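The freezer alarm interrupted the setup, so I double-checked each line after restarting. Inputs confirmed:
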Amino acid sequence: MKPVECEFESEVLSATLQSRWPDRVDADLRTHVAACAICSDVVTIGGAFDYAREEMRACAVVPDSGRVWWLAQLRARREAAEAAGRPITAAQVIAFACAVGLLGACFGATSTWFQSALAWLGSSVAAFDAKGFLPSAATLVAGHGALVIAVAAVLFVVPTAVYLALGRD
Amino acid sequence: MTFTDVSRAETLDDASAAFVMDEDAFRAFYERTARGVWAYLARVTGDRQLADDLLQETFYRFLRAAATHDSEAHRRNSLYRIATNLARDARRRRLIRAPFSVSCNDIERIPSSEHGGAAERMADFTRAMSHLKPRERAMLWLAYAEGASHREIADVLGLRPGSLKPMLFRARRKLAALLGRGPDKGKR
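Predicted 3D structure, all chains:
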């Protein structure tokens, strides 16, 4: 199996990075590097990386640490506020749905008109005639247009309110 | 102030308390590591502008990570691991636009007698690095520019230490050949 590392590798790399290569190292090490493909590669790329690292670090323009800290704080606060707002929004939706349900129940319990309409609806369902459904439906719409419009409005308003509330997230 | 307002205010206070270190410790750590992380990101992504963006994101995620570090080296490895993952994500999203525009522009700081040699040397290095895969660039930079151990490199890159050695060997050999001074010169 072809070796992938050499025991002198780190020593050669240290010499390269400390600018001791090739003049200020043992002759034995130079002889080894001349015969070792791995150490030869280390010398080649070690010098290149050393130079590139110094060059890159010298020309790096990084933001001030105080600015990075301040921006991180701002972002953390914004994210925390968003996270805190999420359950509140959900609670608002649930409260709105409960309020609508409660109002509907109160209205149903107190309105004689609504109760008679319910009774009429019950008897209509019991006496449902498929053949006579369409004429009956037409009669219902014509006779109780306001009720139909109110039901349609509720069916539209509730999903829209839920959508708008959740859409803010 | 309602109960909700109190709860929200407490959450906002918790946001800064959730950082893994206080401001003084962070600033000292940043001063020690920011330039190195920027150089790493610039070399791995090949894009200075992207490196600027990812640097801030790296430190923000580091601060928000609920991790405890038992040493400076451990903390530093975590930072480089975050930087590596961000660079990988950016590559997947194809945010890396123009590879290898990373050479330093302020060549004026180099003495005039060295301009030609320095520029040519960096151009050679940049050109050679551009032929490597991002992971090869990352492992070579960590090993030879940052002086990281095999275990640290494996930890940062999410590799098994056992599989790192042959990968590092191949990457090193490839780069040496590309630089034109290694034993594989002329094979490519």
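Quick read of the result. The mean pLDDT of chain B is 79.
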